[in-house]
Amino acid sequence: MSFTSDEVNYLVYRYLRESGFDHTAFTFASESSITKNITQNVVPHGALISFLQKGLLYQEIETHLSTDGVEVPCDQPFSLIVPHVCKTIPRSKSLKDERDDYYEKDSSQHSRHGRQQVVDDDVDMGTPFNSLEYSEIQQSQVTVLEGHQSEVFICAWSPNSLQLASGSGDSTARIWSIPSGPCGVPSNDPPLVLRHINSSHQDKSKDVTTLDWCGDAQLLATGSYDGLARIWNSKGELVNTLAKHQGPIFSLKWNKKGDHLLSGSVDKTAIVWDAKSGSVLQQFEFHSAPTLDVDWRNNTQFATCSTDKMIYVCEIGKNKPVRAFSGHEDEVNAIKWDPSGSLLASCSDDTTAKIWSLKSDKPAHDFREHQKEIYTIKWSPTGPGSENPNKPLVLASASFDATIKVWDIDSGSLLHNLTRHAEPVYSVSFSPNGDFLASGSFDRWYVIFLSFFFFFVFACLKVCDTIHYGVSVFGLRATNKQGIKKRISFQV
After folding, report:
1. Pair 198, 183: CB distance under 8 Å
2. Alpha helices, DSSP H, located in 309-408
């Protein structure tokens, strides 16, 4: 492996340009003459940041592996600049160890035939959280979809069919057909492979960073690191390529009507596209730093958030924000409208989650119970505007502090603090009826929490130690107080 000073200088130059330091970039390029020595259009957007991130990750892994290959526990953050000093907070036993001990002790008590009945019909719903029995989901109950050649960043169910879309760092998205019936049955149908290759540079990999199904499930939109959004039909055929962004796309969403697609990019802008023609309907340039997430409120209004700590509510046809929310003290990682479209939730690296209303510039609720950055949030599919209007609306937040917190929106209070993970939680998802909450963590565990106005651990799944570049799908059978059996599926 080798590289030249010209190549390093060019990456610095590109970083300056992409960050908006045009005058500094011009001066640097002029003094170093790098634009004369490098073929400019073969370098992807964000290349310097990508190399730094991967290098830092490699350095962190190398630092925390002993000579015999055992991971060294460390609770200190790993920095690009500050020298790292490992420091472990003493614990008598980790959550992971407790789970492993539990499974080793009680595995003989669980059924080894078919699906496990992990909650008895006569369980008292008032039983304390930690005293309820829960069970490990067996690998025989999991359908594993393998084929990706690199990390899988995102997956999403089709709204009305047993199809699952996934996006990966191998520059492809894939549409999988999931067998009907119990999970654990292997899929015999090969996936549809949606290749994200820039026609002018086919040797360059394009990470698929985000995707979203249209409401009628006929179209799938994908966003990638090359700054292009693409629209595919359900057969895996490319319908449109949307080219306007000047940086990686981190988020895109269809509106409910399905005629407009919204995308947010590192280039600091959000774009509303005409889905049929592929043309730009309007580009919104309100943020002063990369746009991290976007979410529709209705068919014409939407919200955006950014590393500039701001949240903007925008409307098609208007050149100024409908509302600007400032209050976060660090990058805003995610935003989500509630089912009714009246409340907007946000989460940030400042360790807080906030609830906003268009009636005020100040947050209606400011949740400050997390100890570290909050990576994502999810509303329950309940309450006004949802298909479960008689169930209470709650918000779940997942954090790097290894907890999931469930918040009551009416009172603004913490309902439940879910602490079964041992490492940062990156993903949470409610089942369509709002009775289950699934979570995924860097500790390689998926945890299912069952809610009947409270939460307890229902079942757990351990990911095997070897890395599979694929998607796992599993189902659960539950019996509620009325004796109604149901099957819930999750993608993780």
Report:
1. no
2. none
Spell out a b/e string for 418-456, using b for 16 or more CB atoms within 10 Å of the CB, else e. bebbbbbbebbbbbebbbbbbbbbebebbbbbbbeeebb
Residue 417 is inside which H or E element, if any? strand 413-418
Please identify every stretch of the chain with a pLDDT value under 70, giving residue numbers as ranges: 1, 35-42, 66-71, 75, 87-135, 198-205, 450-492
Q: What is the pLDDT at residue 150?
A: 86
Phi, psi angle pair for 40, to nearest 5°: -70, -40
Rounded Cα distance, 19 and 268, in Å: 9
Q: Take residue 6 and report the two structure tokens written for it.
A: 């010209």
Give strand pairing partners of 325: 311
Rounded Cα gap, residues 134 and 81, in angstroms: 43
pLDDT value at position 445? Answer: 77
d(CA 453, CA 448) in angstroms, rounded, equals 15
Q: What is the pLDDT of residue 114?
A: 32
Which distant-in-sequence residues (6+ apart) come within 8 Å of 215 by Cβ?
159, 254, 256, 257, 258
Count CB neighbours of 464 within 10 A.
9
